[in-house]
Amino acid sequence: MTNLLHRLAPLAFTLARMLVQAAGIVVIVFLLARLVPGDAVDVKGLEGDLTAAQQVELRHQLGLDRPVVEQLAGWSWRLLNGDFGASIRFGRPVSAMLATALPTTLLFTALSFTFALLLALGVAVSAVTTGHRGLRGLVDVLNVWSIALPTFCVGVVGILVFSIWLGWLPVLGSMVLPVIIIGIDSAGLIVKPLHEELREAATSAHVRTARAKGLAPSRIALRHLLPTAVPVMLALSGLVLTSLVAGTLTMEVLFGLPGVGSLLLNAIHGRDYPVIQAAILVIAIALVIINAATDLLHRLIDPRMTS
Amino acid sequence: MSLALPAKAGEAVRRGPSPRTMIAALVLALIVALALAAPLVAPFDPLDQDLRALNQPPGPEHWLGTDHMGRDVFSRLVMGARTTLMVGFGGALVAFILGAGFGLVALSLGRVAETVMFALIDLVRAMPDVLLALLLIVALGAGAQPVVIALGVAFAPFFAYVARATFHREAVKDYVTAARLFGGGKLHVLRLHLAPNLVGGLVTQAAILLPRCVVTESVLSFLGLGSSPDEPTWGRMVADASRYIETSPHVILAPVIAIILLTLSLSILGEAVRRNLDPLRAAGEAKL
């Protein structure tokens, strides 16, 4: 019984932290949106659609004349029911606009994430198992690449080379180039710690034993080294996802992909506050949930985490 | 399966700056010099439009050609260097002051305050820095100043974390105990004995975060959220030229290469600073 409790306590902590973080994000987004000079009604008023009396009326209807705390509570309650309000510019429900944009972004991030993890893992494992100088150099190159080269600059060069000069890819709408660019960028973020962890694992007793038994290097890499990389990968995946947010924004804009990033940017330029709030909330809360999930998974497969 | 042999301890420590670091320092010095001397160096007004010379290729009159509004690309590049550097460095500075200040106040107020204040930072950190910066710019409005504040707030937590980590590492050392035993008050010890030892870690963190600040600034201005349209920044130049990428690639390549040179030299220098200064890593580095 105490044993079970001992194991469940950290899980409960992770879940509680997730809820607190999500609530915190809702409050931060709400408060920062309130800082904006002028509310939704002012924007409509400036466009000349409403008289002063109509503005007061509409503000009352939208509840904008009530105390802040009450508004926050009402807003959060509607969010919980999936009601993000309506776009000021288009009058469409924000949830419908998000639903149109989400598939593109989900596909893009899933592809980039997978490519990043496979690339980082491939380079790190082969660098450790072969000990090849070039491969170890590649670890450093990837690392510097991701720190120093902004993805949108790489994207511009990529468009010039592959779409315009070589003519291999269309300039707009193709996901190939952005996925490769973001994949390399994110791989560079994690390949160094991954490499260090694997190098340490390669000197551990069970790998030495495997070598002493005369197992093939490929088998050692796959059966004995790779499993030790899994917990590290889980721990690092949060870092990758966070960097994907910036990457997705710039790539969607540069390559004309109609995802949540493009939606958010268009909303910011059009001062469409309900859409801005909803898009930022969806991205931030999705990250909090995914991070909590990887944390739980990490605890499940790595018993060292619970102690 | 062979593994890299560890180099002899101390071997890498005594060497002077590597050629890579020297080149990075030279490139950075050149960019800063150009930015400082921008009004003298720029042959044209960066906002002057010459509508008879749109998207001109590089030539003797316009060294790097002209953009889609007939503005001189070289002049925009050197004037843009000012804004890019000022906002990027300003953001890092604000983050440093905000983060280190917040961290030190939390640490000097005792355990409970420390836990609560750092929980608050964790809460803000749950949001990716770019999203937080975006949200702050939406709230504060566009322009150079809001971007500096947004970058500062988004990157401040890193400095607070470093202040806390070095603080706790130093606080258990003998010299602190001795100072306390001699009757030094908490604040006195923090100010006179601990603070000087926190500087190394914080400066290292600044060196690591500087290229990230510059990159984030250029991303924000590429997205059209940086400074106002009359102030050329490198990110905005890339965004403006992206529509004419097929017909006049030189207009977009100039700021792209400039950004890459700047961030690359900053991160090489940051890495050099980290290798030589960082007290947190020093022990581990000697072993490699």
Automatic annotation (TrEMBL), chain A:
Major localization class: membrane
Pfam families, alphabetized: BPD_transp_1 (PF00528)
CDD domains: TM_PBP2
Places the protein is found: Cell membrane
Signal sequence, start to end: none
Transmembrane parts of this sequence: 12-33, 106-129, 141-165, 171-191, 229-255, 275-297
GO cellular component assignments: plasma membrane
GO BP: transmembrane transport
Membrane topology of this protein: Multi-pass membrane protein
Domain of life of the source: Bacteria
UniProt keyword annotations, A-Z: Cell membrane, Membrane, Transmembrane, Transmembrane helix, Transport
InterPro entries in UniProt: MetI-like, MetI-like_sf
Domain ABC transmembrane type-1 positions: 102-294
Family the entry assigns: Belongs to the binding-protein-dependent transport system permease family.
Protein name: Peptide/nickel transport system permease protein
UniProtKB/TrEMBL annotation, chain B:
Topology in membrane: Multi-pass membrane protein
Cellular component per GO, a single term: plasma membrane
Transmembrane region(s): 21-42, 85-109, 130-163, 252-273
GO biological process, one term: transmembrane transport
Keywords assigned by UniProt, alphabetized: Cell membrane, Membrane, Peptide transport, Protein transport, Transmembrane, Transmembrane helix, Transport
Subcellular location: Cell membrane
Cross-referenced PANTHER family: D,D-DIPEPTIDE TRANSPORT SYSTEM PERMEASE PROTEIN DDPC-RELATED, OLIGOPEPTIDE TRANSPORT SYSTEM PERMEASE PROTEIN APPC
Primary localization class, coarse: membrane
Name assigned to this protein: ABC-type dipeptide/oligopeptide/nickel transport system permease subunit
Entry superkingdom: Bacteria
UniProt record similarity statement: Belongs to the binding-protein-dependent transport system permease family.
InterPro entries given in the database record: BP-dependent_transpt_permease, MetI-like, MetI-like_sf, OppC_N
Domain ABC transmembrane type-1: 81-270
Lineage: Bacteria, Pseudomonadati, Pseudomonadota, Alphaproteobacteria, Hyphomicrobiales
